[in-house]
Design goal:
Chain lengths: 188, 602
């Protein structure tokens, strides 16, 4: 298969790494080779967190700027920070208010690069569902609705069911399902 | 297998413990108190005929250097592999030092993997190599190998059935300087033999030269940069530039490198973090790298950097450049947006935050020496003035004291050190300070875990690497054993009590009959011990009494506190708030209050 590059970002504590694990495990279960790089340690404490995930025959774990196919951002400002990773016609899934995203100054760049973006107020949705810490699951659920290659929403859901710690499993699936439904409504 | 945690090496030992369980292996594991202790322990196992490994971060190898240098001369009977993880960037370290140079200094072979899969293969090879040549071997994975995710597979793992045996030979194992000269000679012979072996070690050292063909440019790369170079050329469908991969930078595969160099007019060296391969290449006229200014001498060689370095060089040599120049418009856009700087901060509810607040409150003019751990982030709260290396909070405090005391100046000094760091290298400094009558307050921030590196147990906890029960060490007894007479234990969540104790300690320090005062600020880490750390979660709010002095935001710096533009005052983010309630005592106006249950949502 052609290489598919993901960049996932957010703030320390938002669950960027778990979000990455969900996608990586889903790819693995489909027999796709995965390679990725993550942030740990000092950099993780409340700071800007970025994670790279590459599917296919690659050797390096980092995505070069301008070559990511997908950017999943758990924070609006972090989405702007890592926007240069997206290549032409890249797709951005961001935890932001659809009415307010993107900032005016960013619009020409997004248009010029042919980037499509989809917004979900993931923190608000997760809180509304009684799971304030699960904005990562909310964004993954939303993302899954778009059936982006090589993932189907069913496959992602199965991974969440399999790898969630048992005490969070039901809540994780609830948030995933609800935000998947929002994504479906948003589909073009 | 022994280890002391440190980013990016901390996951190796827990990974091994998991594997030992799932594969039913008989492998001894331990979290050692520090890296030198870890290496000495592994070395003894290796000369008893076992296969031993020892894992640490690159600066940990500095601590273990004394052991490494000598072990290189003595050699092994079984196998000894030292895994030293490098941190180009640096992302979570005090230096960007290159473990390959430490291996060169110690005169032991070093292997430099490009991917996690290659690291796995090299780990197995390192054990064989160590056993064959009776020499310690260093495996040097950099952060992008350590904190990478890749699917790898392995064959069935088997127990090594060699029984421990030690054949006494004091002239060797306790060699005096006269015999050390002979051991050095033996080591040099081993290195020359290994260098020849590495010339034909095609698994890890290889190139794609076509026989008889001449090239305008070739690239020599090792470690993570090799993987990046490969991806760039594959993506660009470039086959005109040969690449020599060096997986064993020391001892250097001289002949293989000569063969490659002779086929190329120029050779570019791309390696991380320092120059090793570049120094070993003889014909410097041909070499483009750090010494020629083509490759940056600091920072991580991320794909963007390598792409630019190669592209610039191709243009300089009038060769076809890569497809297109790196687009900088995105980076320019981002810098124009003035995005908030996300500096790392202590977690909401972190007991260290409470400690630093009280320490500053009690003695604002003190010099605050500190150490390595989460609490280095106390610098955001003005509670950390220095951070040198493991244990330096104490040694620098005594150094500062003696420097000021010499001039008759009364300079208050307060040192902060974490529990794990204290066990690692605090005692030698404390013994020295007591013995030489230094005067300062030492606060041991005891959160009962090694938090920064991912919650490894400390000797104080009495839980071992595999989860089994060990003997818990009493921090109090260790401190008293160092000759300290003033010792108080306080819960830092109680800001009033903590401030009082710091003041009392400072008075004891300045009393002519006083001495060093030690405070153990004990409260469990909120991440490791969620329920014990905060037994009763408080729902908090900020009342209209808030005068926007911003003391809580600037001096307490809890991520849950923010300025609400709509309300025009400080507010609390309920998602981030841990409910610890410490901030109630921080506000000078008493504007942070607990919402009483009957008040509903306040």
């Amino acid at each position: 298969m052609e290489t598919v590059n993901f960049v996932l970002c957010g703030l320390g504590g938002q669950g960027v790494l778990f979000m990455t694990k969900i996608l990586a495990e889903t790819a693995l279960s489909k027999g796709i080779k995965v390679m990725g790089a993550e942030t740990h340690g000092m950099a993780q404490r409340g700071g800007s967190v970025i994670s790279h995930l590459r599917l296919g025959e690659v050797q390096s774990s980092l995505v070069r700027s301008g070559t990511a196919h997908f950017l999943l951002a758990l924070d609006e400002n972090e989405a702007y920070r890592y926007l240069p990773f997206l290549g032409r016609k890249g797709r951005l899934y961001v935890n932001a208010d659809p009415g307010l995203f993107p900032r005016q100054e960013v619009r020409p760049y997004i248009k010029d690069k042919g980037i499509t973006y989809h917004c979900l107020p993931a923190t608000k949705e997760a809180m509304h569902l009684g799971a304030p810490m699960a904005s990562n699951l909310a964004l993954v659920g939303f993302f899954s609705a778009f059936d982006e290659e090589p993932f189907s929403s069913g496959e992602i859901r199965e991974t969440i069911e399999r790898i969630s710690p048992s005490r969070f499993r039901d809540l994780n699936l609830k948030v995933f399902d609800a935000c998947h439904a929002i994504g479906r409504e948003n589909m073009p | 297998m022994t280890s002391y945690p440190g980013t990016p090496s901390s996951e190796i030992l827990p990974g091994a413990v998991k594997l030992i369980r799932s594969e039913g292996l008989n492998t001894y594991t331990e979290w050692s108190t520090n890296e030198k202790v870890a290496l000495d322990n592994a070395f003894a196992a290796a000369i008893a005929g076992k296969r031993a490994a020892c894992c640490m971060k690159q600066v940990g190898l500095n601590v273990a250097a004394d052991s490494l240098m000598s072990a290189a001369y003595l050699g092994t009977v079984g196998a000894l592999v030292i895994i030293s993880c490098d941190d180009p960037g640096p992302h979570s370290s005090q230096t960007e030092q290159d473990s390959r140079l430490m291996a060169r200094l110690a005169k032991v072979p070093v292997l430099d993997p490009s991917t996690p899969e290659e690291a796995r293969q090299m780990a197995a090879f390192a054990l064989d190599l160590s056993e064959q040549f009776k020499v310690p071997v260093v495996l040097r994975p950099a952060i992008r190998v350590c904190h990478a995710r890749q699917n790898i597979s392995w064959e069935r793992l088997q127990n090594n059935e060699t029984k421990a045996a030690f054949e006494k030979d004091p002239t060797h194992w306790a060699a005096t300087p006269r015999f050390r000269f002979l051991l050095h000679k033996e080591l040099n012979k081993k290195l020359a033999d290994m260098s020849r072996m590495f010339d034909t070690l095609e698994r890890f050292n290889f190139h794609d030269l076509e026989e008889g063909k001449r090239y305008a440019l070739g690239i020599i790369a090792g470690g993570v940069p090799y993987a990046v170079v490969r991806d760039i050329f594959k993506e660009g469908d470039r086959h005109d530039i040969p690449v020599l991969k060096i997986g064993t930078p020391y001892p250097f595969p001289e002949r293989l490198a000569e063969e490659f160099l002779s086929a190329c007019q120029k050779v570019m060296v791309i390696e991380e973090t320092d120059s090793v391969i570049e120094y070993f290449l003889r014909d410097k006229q041909k070499v483009l790298g750090r010494l020629s200014g083509h490759v940056p001498s600091e920072g991580e060689l991320i794909p963007d950097v390598i792409y630019n370095v190669i592209n610039r060089t191709l243009k300089e040599l009038s060769l076809d450049p890569l497809a297109e120049d790196l687009d900088t418009s995105g980076a320019e856009l981002v810098s124009s947006l003035e995005l908030p700087v996300r500096r790392p901060t202590l977690c909401p509810g972190c007991p260290h935050r409470a400690s630093f607040f009280s320490i500053r409150k009690a003695r604002p003019k003190a010099i605050f020496t500190s150490d390595i751990g989460c609490y280095t982030l106390g610098l955001n709260l003005g509670g950390v003035d220095t951070c040198l290396d493991m244990g330096a909070a104490i040694t620098m405090a005594s150094g500062f004291y003696q420097a000021f005391a010499q001039d008759g100046a009364d300079q208050p000094i307060i040192a902060t050190i974490g529990d794990s760091t204290f066990y690692h290298s605090g005692t030698a400094g404390l013994l020295n300070a007591v013995y030489n009558d230094a005067r300062f307050v030492l606060v041991i921030l005891d959160n009962e875990i090694t938090a920064m590196t991912g919650m490894q147990p400390t000797p104080g906890l009495g839980v071992r690497a595999d989860g089994s029960k060990g003997r818990a060490i009493s921090l109090e007894q260790v401190v008293r054993g160092c000759g300290v007479e003033f010792l108080e234990i306080v819960d830092p969540y109680d800001i009033k009590a903590m401030t009082r104790v710091v003041k009392k300690a400072a008075e004891y320090v300045s009393d002519p009959n006083g001495g060093i005062a030690v405070i153990i600020a004990r409260h469990p880490c909120v991440i490791a011990y969620r329920d014990q750390a905060i037994t009763e979660r408080k729902e908090l709010t900020v009342t209209e009494d808030c005068v926007e002095c911003n003391l809580c935001i600037e001096r307490f710096e809890c991520p849950a506190l923010y300025r609400d533009e709509k309300l025009g005052r400080t507010a609390i983010n309920p998602v981030l708030c841990s409910g610890c309630g410490v901030c109630i005592d921080v506000c000078p106006k008493g504007a942070i209050v607990e919402v009483r249950k009957s008040d509903g949502n306040g």
